[in-house]
Amino acid sequence: MSAQIPSSRLLVCSLGNPGARYARTRHSVGHIMLNQLISDHQRTLGNKPLSVPGLNGELYRGKSLLNRDATNPIALFKNGTLMNASGAHVLRAWKWASSALGKDTKLVLLHDDLEMEVGSVQARSDRKHHGHNGIKSVRDYFDGPFYNIRIGIGRPDSRASDDVAYYVLGNIPPRDLDTLKEEAYPKIWELLQAIEENKLEGTVKK
User: Mind telling me which NCBIfam families this protein's record contains (predicted)?
Assistant: First the structure.
């Protein structure tokens, strides 16, 4: 029998825009999904985020959320800056994680995607940004490998930049929010577990 590959430590970061104004918008769907993870595992993570000097956002640390047999810790970070300025604090969170959890900690980004239907999810193990400004910002600061988990939010009929901006900054309709929680969230969970167990390479769509 081959030796079992040990599970990995993860830093899962959500990208979006901060504050109540943007909390339910399509562009902040990464935050919405991370909030669900935090809520579902509050006992493991604790009631309050960690205090890390110079870090803008909410950072939680706990035991593995995804694999009961795994002993490695996991960290969840909700970036607290505007989407286009995500990179600096994602890097700071990763530096903290590489020290606190281990230098081999994997970075995973949760973010919205216009080119996918609501409820669809795709994970990639490359550094391609596909026009996403949050990913572009992370790439500007972080030169290591990372995983993207792209969460479909659909696209407006118009491709005009003003119309697209209005769409992504608009609130998610209740029906779409239900779809995201009922369909996208379980898929995100499965993909995170695959990453933690070192079973995901390349591109996987669900």
Answer: pth (TIGR00447)
Strands 147-152 and 121-124: antiparallel
Asked if residue 3 is part of any domain, the answer here is no
Q: What is the pLDDT of residues 79-90, one digit of tens each?
A: 999 999 999 999
Instruction: Write the pLDDT tens digit of every residue in 47-96.
Output: 789 888 889 999 999 887 776 666 678 899 999 999 999 999 999 999 99
- Positions annotated as catalytic residues are 27
Number of domains in the chain: 1
**Domain span at 47:** 10-205
Give the CATH number of the domain where residue 191 resides: 3.40.50.1470
Give bridge partners of residue 152 from the DSSP assignment.
113
CA atoms within 13 A on the CB side of 128: 10
